[in-house]
Amino acid sequence: MVSVNVVSGRLEGIKEQCIVLAFFEDRLKLEGELAGFDSSIGNAIASAIKNKDFKAEESEVKLLYAGKNAGCIALLGLGKEEKFTLNKLAEVVSGASKKLRASGIKGFAVYLSSFKNKNYGQKEYLEKITLSIVLGLYRFLKFKTEDLDKIKSLGNASIIVNKIDLAQSAKIVSEASIFAEAVEKTRDLVSTPPNIAVPSYVADYAKEIAKKNSIKCTILDEKQMGKLGMGCLLAVGMGSENKPRMVILEYNGNGNEKPIVLVGKGVTFDTGGVNVKPPAYMTTMKDDKASACGVIHVMEACVKLKLNLNVIGVLALAENMISGNSYRPDDVLKSYSGITVEIINTDAEGRLVLADALSYSLRYKPKAIIDIATLTGASIIALGYFASPVLGNNQELIEKIKSASEKSLEKIWHFPLWEEYEENIKSDIADVRHAHDGIDAGVMVGAIFLKHFIDETPWAHLDIGNTAWAKQDRGWIVKGPTGFSVLLLLNLLRDWE
Ligand code: BES
Ligand code: ZN
Ligand code: ZN
Question: Which candidate, 369, 419, 374, places its Cα nearest to that of 394?
Answer without folding.
Answer: 369
